[in-house]
Amino acid sequence: MDSKGSACSNPNPNPTFGPSKLMLAFRFLRALSIVHRTTPASSPTCRGRRIERAAYASMAYSAGTSRAWSRAVLRRLHHRARRRAVAPRRLSTTAGNRAEALRRLVPGGAGMDYCTLLEETADYTKCLSMQVELMQGIVDSASSNGR
Amino acid sequence: MEAKEKNQFGSEKSHGDHINIHSSGTADFVTSSPILSASMVEAFFTPGLWNHHTSSCTMSFGESNIQTATGGVNRVPIGKPVAMSDRGMLPSPPLGEFPHSLPHFPVDSGFIERAARLSCFGCGGFRGISLLDPSHSVAPPSDASEDAVGAQKAELTALSLPVEHENIKGIAMNHKRDPTMSHVGTSNNESREGNLCEDGQERLTGSADAAGNSSSGDLGANKRRKATEEMEEEEDQVLRGLQLSTETTKDLAETKHKSYIHSGKNTKDNSEAAKEGYVHVRAQRGQATNSHSLAERVRREKISERMKCLQELVPGCSKVTGKAVMLDEIINYVQSLQRQVEFLSMKLAAVNPQLDFSIEGLLAKNLLHSHGGSSSAAGFSQEMIYPQVYSSQQVLAHAGISSMLNPSDAFRRTVNTEIPMASGYKETSLQVHNSWNEQLVMQMAYGANPPLNSQVISRKPDGFTMQKDRSN
């Protein structure tokens, strides 16, 4: 392992990248395998929802608790786990108030001021895009390898 | 008193750029804080008061005034000269300098006060500020409470921050925008997480907010506010002067009345990010200097900075102008990302019911995608993956069902084996260079690594790596 670190250079052009992709990948893959193991194959929808929750959970854990949105996500997940409710996240952008729409989109956005909201949105977007990339990669590798 | 002040100035000046005005004024300021008036002496005190509040102020003045070495000495704000422990340093050589600059500045009590205060900011370039102080004989306060020093330091750092900016924002100490300040200050995260945008300005504002918040909590904050209220009129001048001093003393004289917009850019030493300090707003020429409007301007600046960051994040938004359209784009993008997550999770649920995924393959692909890695790395890693699959095909028997074996353990083992194997992939490791240490952490997080045993996990020959017996 150490040899890897010593051997590799650092081509990363973005040193201030947020949560590490690797950590995200590990967390998500682990959660994925757990979900696959624990849910019956007869309910793919249920499994899909669990995977989605796992995706958000791994995203939030990777981002750490220093972010308001990650805290909100974890809070929501923990509460959902107890109450077994699925939060509907259908949102519509009303031309009238974009800030409100954004608040609904970003977890934890309801209780913050506009400046913080923008900042959290940026971080949340970064993590979301990383998560989507990861999931897409998994699907691609699964589909390409599983001839 | 003047001599004493001058001495203080000198001593401070010897330290460097920062204006050491405040050192002497602390005690006096404390006592006379409510009485701040346009008198020069009082103006001088303000720096002392400031000093008061910033325990961490490394200004030499803090030390000179406070017999005891304050803890603030250690926490020198960025760009601040090292606090001098020996008060006695000094004076004559620096004093000689003062006279040159002095004539350039109006001996305005309010201005002096501002300058003194600003000098506390300890910006490296604030040579000019010191100009102001020596001209005014103000008895520096003898004591400086830790709070004062701390607040001062915060303000100092804060002041240095805006130097980068076109505008100086904030004004933690001068304005009674308590709600704004507190609001700003509470989001201390901003100072740190402002880096998100990798924007120096962002950090400045964030740190300024933090500073502002901390300053507002100071004991002497009220006193300072009172004092500043009275001086608000001259604030701009002082700020401008202060700002300019950062650049050069010469510029100070010239640009005293000009907007500081470009001045800050010259001082890089002040722009250390993530410093806690006040964000000082500088009223530009021709703009209202009302505290509310200044606060509004600060807020708008912050919002525009964040919007710029978001613009970079959202693909295809570089040419979009206008906040409304930009916001719409952002909202659409976030919505689309969320929908993608949902869709992909459904897909994952259906496609891979029982597989342990190849970390290497995923990493190679993902990281190659993200970092534009070379195709050779991809080919390399895949070559390594597939042979393993083929070699262990014979072993697997229970086609997919046996993977129910213990997927989580299998995953762990997979991770454990694949990471070492991946170590051979230098190209791959290139992509994950910064994550390998996390990988190690990840491994540790998995608990005791199960010994690599010869157990083979049967998998479908779909390219997923299989764990092979190490002895093979």
Structure description:
The complex is a heterodimer of chains A (147) and B (472). Chain A is mostly helical. Chain A is built from 6 helices and no strands. Chain A has helices spanning 2-7, 21-38, 44-63, 68-83, 98-105, 114-145. In chain A, helix 3 (44-63) packs antiparallel against helix 4. Chain A is globular. A two-stranded antiparallel sheet of chain B has the order 2-3. The model of chain B is unreliable at 1-103, 121-222, 241-275, 371-411 and 414-472 (pLDDT under 50). Chain B is 58% helix and 1% strand. By secondary structure, chain B is mostly helical. Chain B contains 21 helices and 3 strands.
Strand order of the largest sheet of chain B: 2-3
Low-pLDDT runs of chain B: 1-103, 121-222, 241-275, 371-411, 414-472
String of helices and strands of chain B = HHHEHHHHHEHHHHHHEHHHHHHH
Supply the number of helical segments of chain A. Answer: 6
**Percent helix among the residues of chain B?**
55-70%
GO cellular component, one term (chain A): nucleus
Protein name (chain A): IBH1-like N-terminal domain-containing protein
Keywords (chain A): Nucleus, Transcription, Transcription regulation
InterPro entries (chain A): bHLH_AtIBH1-like (IPR044549), IBH1-like (IPR044660), IBH1_N (IPR059002)
Please tag this protein with its features.
heterodimer; A: 147 residues; mainly alpha; 68% helix; 0% strand; disordered N terminus; B: 472 residues; two-stranded antiparallel sheet; 58% helix; BHLH domain-containing protein (chain B); transcription (chain B); protein dimerization activity (chain B); bHLH_ZIP_TF (chain B); DNA-binding transcription factor activity (chain B)
